[in-house]
Amino acid sequence: MNQRTRNVILFVGISILIFLLFYFRNIVAYILIAAVLSLIGRPLMRAIQRISIKKKHLGKTSSALITLLIMLAATIGFLAALIPLVAMEIKDLSAIDVTSVVDYLDVAFAHLSNKLPHFVADSGADSGMQEYIQEQLANMLNLGQVTNLFSSVAGTLGNLFLMFFSVSFILFFFLKEEQLFSHIILVFVSSKYETKAKHVMTSINHLLKRYFIGIIFEVLGVMILDTIGFSVIGLGFNHGLVVAVFAGVMNVIPYIGPWIGGAFGVLVAIATHLDDSFPDVALPLILLVLLVVVIVQVIDNVVFQPVIYSNSVRAHPLEIFLVILMAGSFAGIAGMILAIPVYTVLRVIAHEFLSQFRLVRELTSKMTDD
């Protein structure tokens, strides 16, 4: 077989592989989700394996099953505690009269115009912005949209159940056989590069495990701090908890996520105090909500993120910032969320296969540090 024929076969094979990955993208997504969860659950499984009962340790099958059950129980318990609060919050917000919200905002903008004439000038453009903000807030509180949301969720319950079952099933085997996912990847690697590929997979597993576990602790940390802060300033524990959970989840979106959570907190503060005076009650509460968001973000930036974004993936903060900006420009919010894991994988591969280039050596120099 000559080289030209081999190239044609290789091209056809890669084309078929890309087509299959795209056609079965849902299954590929299930596998990737299970692989990430296996990285998170691996430390727990190893801790379970160290437990001895009558001087005997649990086998891989039993440890994997117990780990899976603990992860499922934690997820279900969290959702079981949260869903009633979210449902109550949605019910309260959707029951609010949209007209009263708009009237309340008119009073709020009038007050701000009097107190801050230089910042809230009475001009046509500012009036248009005011109407736009009112329209957006009114839409967010629209009961019809909430109903449509529930209908959409109800229509996808079958797919969610399929995903839940599929990911759980795959996750069990990824936990039981630690190298299974690596073996799946190595099937597509030439034997010539198998040793380097194995080293790449080991490095990726190590870095991404620390990153995803760090992300979980960051989200939980932001949720706890926001819950405490919102409860202290008078937003109410139930309202504060729902806003804090939303803010914690949004915090996964680098840089802009926290302010999305803060905007939701401001909305809740306004919607739950329509019967109170804006300058005396609502405005101070809004400022306190923003203060809590700022304080939590300072803690997040100083304490959480250096460990997660810098130490776990071993990259410079400026490097991380630029990567996230480029990923956001290319693929929006989804790109910002996936930027660090994808960049970590690419850095590991480049470090192993392209280390002869000076740029690659500079970008991956910290990866060799202990």
From TrEMBL:
Pfam families cross-referenced by the UniProt entry: AI-2E_transport (PF01594)
Localization per Swiss-Prot or TrEMBL: Cell membrane
Keywords for this protein: Cell membrane, Membrane, Transmembrane, Transmembrane helix, Transport
Entry similarity comment: Belongs to the autoinducer-2 exporter (AI-2E) (TC 2.A.86) family.
Protein name, UniProt field: AI-2E family transporter
GO cellular component, one term: plasma membrane
A biological process term (GO) from this entry: transmembrane transport
TM helices/strands, residue ranges: 7-23, 29-45, 65-87, 149-175, 211-235, 241-269, 281-300, 320-346
Taxonomic placement: Bacteria, Pseudomonadati, Bacteroidota, Bacteroidia, Marinilabiliales
Topology versus the membrane: Multi-pass membrane protein
